[in-house]
Amino acid sequence: MARIIVVGGGIGGLATALAVTAAGHDTVVLERADRFAEIGAGIQLAPNGIHALDRLGLGEAVRRTAVAMSELRFMDGVTGNWVTSVPLSSAYQRRFRNPYVVVHRAELHKLLVDACLGNARIELHSACETTGYLQDASTVTAVLRDGRHFTGDALIGADGIHSQIRGQMLDDGAPRISGITVYRSVIPMERVPSRFPVRSAVTWWAGPGCHFVHYPIAGGTFLNLAASSDNGATEALTGVAVTKDAVRREFAALCPAARDLLELGEDWKSWVLVDRDPVADWTDGRVAMLGDAAHPMLHYAAQGACQALEDAVLLGDTVDCHADELPQRLEKYNAARRERTSRIQVLARDSVRLWHPRGAGAHARNAMLSAMSAEQLHDHLAWMHGARHFGADAESAAPHGAVAGEGDA
User: What distances in angstroms separate CA 295 from CA 18, 20, 304, 362, one per listed residue?
Assistant: First the structure.
């Protein structure tokens, strides 16, 4: 048995606590915020993410609170024409053995918090801002800004894209600014006119240099709106309030139906998206990273939360060992995960070419997508959605010209 320090109390950090505790270790989670709570709106969970939650003992609880989607619907955001849909019902669920669901981020986070609170071998500590680590041959210590120290046999950095653990380990500077701004709003479903079929589908409206996605959350009582604009933003902003007029101007090129849905949004906030290039190594002796600390990605493959959950499950499987073996086991975890997560990082970044072309490029995209059968669309998603083991053995070559995935928000 070992003592594992987890830095970061988000979805990835809490999932890690559950996974490594199941492997027989005691776990301490250090969260910089004053309490364990999650901000944000909706996230999408493909079958691979649901399978990871099943492994953590939370799959059924998530299914009860999440909304199962019947299709991923792709619309031409300029003409308003339907282009294609990925059906998510019987054939999809038989193939991938789980539904595709959407859930409010805070609901998923609370389930993880409650599971950790119910486990006597997990300690949750808030108001613990970790600035770095110290290690020797047998222990590692998290160093807090207020001077406190927490010592264990291994340390897992799950502290997000601005990770202090990554900063010490890799010293690779600030995240890359994508130049894309996303505008988000959440509205009561009762305000959505019945003419809009929004209650059982994730829908994208793809336009020139922009796109707009919406889907239900919170058991279908709210609609999550997220509109992305490739507007060349140069400063990383987070949760900045914007006016409805600003959103109108940014997405004026979209068709009336898409603009009518955007018009329903209130209290809009904006984020400038950032990510990082893939790296091969996320370990340093008794220290390893996961989730956005290790492989931050744009949300356009809808796999950020799923990959953090996969990381946690595989890490738990890998560290079923004595404390002396942990450095080698962390390297094994890193080696098993880096190819898959790197591919998804690159896919998420490249998928902008699917969402944002203009003119002839948009026509060619529509023709390509509309010519694909449901089975072919499922084939293109299988390497992501169908993973069950989450390590190197889960990899298979993606088909050439693969569909870029689904946009999360």
Answer: 21, 20, 9, 30
**Average pLDDT of the segment spanning 134-150:** 97
Structure-block tokens of residue 83? 């282009």
Q: Which of the residues are catalytic?
A: 215
Q: Are 140 and 153 in contact (CB under 8 A)?
A: yes
Q: What are the angstrom distances between the C-alpha of 393 and each of 314, 334, 337, 383? A: 12, 14, 10, 11
Q: Judge contact between 104 and 42, C-beta under 8 A.
A: yes
Angle between helices 374-385 and 47-55 (to 10 degrees): 40
Spatial separation of the C-alpha atoms in residues 197 and 219, rounded to whole Å: 16
212 neighbors 254 (Cβ within 8 angstroms): yes
From the list 268, 391, 404, 284, the residue with the least C-alpha distance to 340 is: 391
Residue 66: both structure tokens together: 């999440």
83, 89, 93, 98: CA torsion to nearest 10: 100
DSSP character string of 350-361: HTHHHHS--HHH
Q: Which fold has domain 3-173+276-394?
A: FAD/NAD(P)-binding domain (3.50.50)
Give me the torsion for CA of 87, 382, 75, 234, rounded to 10°: 150
Which residue in the block uniquely carries the two structure tokens 């996230």? 43
Q: Supply 360's token pair.
A: 């002839």
Give strand pairing partners of 241.
269
Strand order in the sheet with 122-125: 122-125, 26-30, 3-7, 154-157, 287-289, 283-284
Under 8 Å between Cβ of 185 and 193: no
112-126 pLDDT tens trace: 999 999 999 999 999
State the Cα–Cα distance between residues 57 and 66, nearest whole angstrom: 16
Number of helices (H), then strands (E), in the chain: 13, 20
Q: How many CB atoms lie within 10 A of CB 280?
A: 9
What string of H, E and C letters represents the secondary structure of 38-49?
Answer: CCCCEEEECHHH
Q: Are 90 and 100 in contact, with CB atoms under 8 Å apart?
A: no
Look up the pTM and report it: 0.93
- Tens digit of each residue's pLDDT (9 = 90 or more) over 201-243: 999 999 999 999 999 988 889 999 999 999 999 999 899 999 9
DSSP secondary structure code for residue 389 in this structure: S
Instruction: Give the separation between CA 363 and CA 366, rounded to whole angstroms.
Output: 5
Instruction: Give the pLDDT band (50/70/90) at residue 199.
Output: confident
